[in-house]
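Today's session is about reading a structure prediction critically. Students often jump straight to the picture, but the first step is always the sequence itself: look for stretches that repeat, for charged clusters, for runs of hydrophobic residues. Only then move on to the predicted structure, which in these notes is written as discrete structure tokens rather than atom positions. Here is the chain we will use throughout the hour.
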Amino acid sequence: MTLKDCKKEEKMDREFQKKFKFEGSINVLTQMMVDPAATEKRGGAKNLPLRRGEILDVIQFTNQEQILCRNSQRRYGYVPRAVMLPL
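Below is the predicted structure for this chain, in token form.
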């Protein structure tokens, strides 16, 4: 990874922490897959866009309805628990 890529990732992580009021370091708890039978959804202000079969990194289990996740493009957002499957 180049220095430019590292700086870009650090900036994205800082923006995530500010937007979601996330304290501490960003640790991946586990990985989960979006249900292949789920409908694809566009992302919103704080929601992550969903693609069928996509593998997401789980950052935080926020409540009974949502999980805070990161996708392969290093974008962060909430995902409904109902469409997530354990790997």
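Discussion point for the tutorial: The CA atoms of residues 65 and 75 lie 20 Å apart.
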